[in-house]
């Protein structure tokens, strides 16, 4: 296998260990890749402040694609560039349509620099970078800008939620779910991980054939399908497995690091 120019990886459930940290083996693999001229990009549903919550990872990143492709973030300079956002009026209509199908849902709006959620979210997430409102109307009034809408149902799986809203008028927004976890994410039309990663790569004259991508959930599917080589984690959702060109070991087994080590070893052997 030829050495890639870009390694693009989802974070939670993929690059990060099950405890949410970066293992020593993964740190070493990322450092070796960058020393060999390979760029490392985090491609995540997290927004920039969520990436900043991983200080051990930041030194190994050349960039980050956040909010499922709606934001490009430079962790070094702190520059946040919003590629696609949702009109507030459109967001209100979509949330109303979803609430009819999921009356037990609670909603939150990512703004790019923070998040505003309905009060029930407080017990789930604490308060870091969050504001809270008593109603959905209050959420949108506080948010003012939306790059992603989050929908949570504690008593349903993400797949059940997606099935419940099937056929509802989502105004063209892109939607993804989280398998067994009761969450839906909604982004602006055309905003997904493939779009955000392709934007980052195009600006550096890198095509999909030079990209190796890693992921584990349905929101990773566009990226896994776009990259020239892609790996679904060992315990990945079936939709991710179907989209990827190969499998990696689980994040508990440092699956991303294993693949990177193999790529670098293959390149060294080919050059010998």
Automatic annotation (TrEMBL):
Entry-linked Pfam families: Hydrolase_3
Keywords from the UniProt entry: Hydrolase
One GO MF term: hydrolase activity
Gene3D superfamilies, sorted: 3.30.1240.10, HAD superfamily/HAD-like
Domain of life: Bacteria
EC number: 3.1.3.-
UniProt-listed InterPro entries: HAD-like_sf, HAD-SF_hydro_IIB, HAD_sf
PANTHER family: HAD SUPERFAMILY HYDROLASE-LIKE, TYPE 3, PHOSPHOSERINE PHOSPHATASE
Entry-linked NCBIfam families: HAD-SF-IIB
The protein's name in its UniProt record: HAD family hydrolase
Species whose genome carries this gene: Glycomyces tritici
């Amino acid at each position: 296998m030829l050495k890639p120019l870009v390694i693009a990886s989802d974070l939670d459930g993929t690059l990060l260990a099950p405890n949410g940290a970066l293992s020593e083996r993964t740190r070493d693999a990322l450092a070796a890749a960058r020393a060999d001229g390979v760029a490392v990009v985090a491609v995540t549903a997290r927004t920039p402040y969520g990436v900043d919550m991983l200080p051990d990872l930041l030194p190994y990143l050349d960039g980050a694609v956040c909010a499922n492709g709606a934001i490009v973030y430079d962790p070094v300079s702190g520059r946040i560039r919003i590629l696609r956002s949702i009109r507030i009026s459109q967001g209100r209509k979509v949330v109303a349509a979803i609430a009819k199908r999921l009356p037990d849902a609670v909603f939150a709006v990512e703004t790019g620099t923070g998040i505003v959620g309905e009060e029930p979210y407080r017990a789930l997430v604490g308060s870091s970078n969050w504001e809270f409102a008593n109603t959905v109307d209050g959420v949108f009034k506080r948010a003012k800008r939306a790059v992603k809408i989050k929908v949570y149902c504690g008593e349903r799986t993400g797949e059940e939620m997606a099935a419940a809203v099937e056929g509802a008028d989502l105004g063209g927004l892109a939607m993804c779910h989280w398998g067994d976890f009761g969450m839906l994410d909604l982004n602006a039309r055309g905003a997904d991980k493939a779009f955000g990663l392709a934007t980052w790569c195009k600006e550096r004259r890198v095509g999909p054939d030079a990209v190796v991508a890693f992921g584990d959930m349905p929101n990773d599917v566009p990226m896994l399908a776009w990259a020239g080589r892609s790996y679904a984690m060992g315990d990945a959702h079936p939709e991710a497995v179907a989209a990827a060109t190969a499998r990696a070991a689980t994040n508990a087994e440092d699956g991303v690091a294993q693949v990177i080590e193999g790529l670098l070893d293959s390149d060294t052997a080919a050059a010998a």
